[in-house]
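Appendix B. Chain record.
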Amino acid sequence: MHMLAARLHEIGTSLKVEEVPEPALKPGGAIVRVLASHVPNFMSGIVSGKLDYYVMPLPFIPGPGAIAVVEAVADDVFGLEVGQKVFCDINMATKSNNAPPEKILIGITALTPNAGSLQQLWRDGTFAEKVCYPAECLTPLEGAADVEPTTLASLNFLTIAYGGLLRGEVRPAQTLIVNGATGCMGASAVLVSLAMGVAKVVAVARNQETLDTLVQLDPKRVTSVALAGNAEDAEKVKAASGGADVLLDCLGAVKDADPVLACINALSPGGTAVFIGGVQAEIPLPYFRIMIQELTIRGAFMYPRQVPKDLLRMISTGTLNLNAIKTHVFPLDKVNDAVSKAATLRGLEYSIVVPNSNSF
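Structure tokens predicted for this chain:
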């Protein structure tokens, strides 16, 4: 049996949609039929080689996370049933009592030096009609199963944003600064934080037009600061927040540390800064202020295993409203158009590939 998949044959070339053998079921896994796969804005950098990610020996099928339907389950897998709709989580790590974990992002890259074997075991991503996926990375949709799969595919970023918010120990009634708020990750953080009950979100970025769309999510709780790239930025963020409890820094691959420092300086005593972005500059942290005001600086990468289930419960109960999400949907044979489109998107806009467009 064969299926269609988009494969990368050579870095710097386009993805090629072609017939390949259907995946074989392996221990610890399940065969899933992909309904909707998220195309992140950095996928073009992986394909072009601009992002120096360690990808599988070519050719391989990329694709980071998806909404899918279970078609077969290995004998050693429990808690999954054929016909269930699931979220495919890209975040995987080995488990050992005597060695640090090896980590991969399925369909994207290896994260640790010796993760090649793990990556080879789960080598294919979700730009395909079907994929064999590790069962531990599949979360049944349950009460959210009726939500449009193309919309639910946004979980690929929502989960990471929520993981960062959990790392900052964000609580209801707090004030949160989201730096880099107009990027897809930052906008996701604004949306999720509102669902978590924060009293105030200060969305910080340069693009006022996109910031305005975030304010409209909840004008009573969301305010914005458009950075001008000058000495006044720090005071504007501080004035808008009135002293923030948490900073979630989602800023992308920029080489300027000033926006991050402007937001750190707006933290109240005892506040926490969480870095989940891709800033390329060294951050000259204010040692004396961090000590005197007992600030906490944390890094966050991906999220705990329970996060997809948490978000799906929030979606099913209406706590997390996805109505503001806009999707640009492409069939599998237009995957390269989807990759190009994703690179242009900001805010709550997502590029989505549907390998099985007749399945829902």
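Further analysis of this model is presented in Appendix C.
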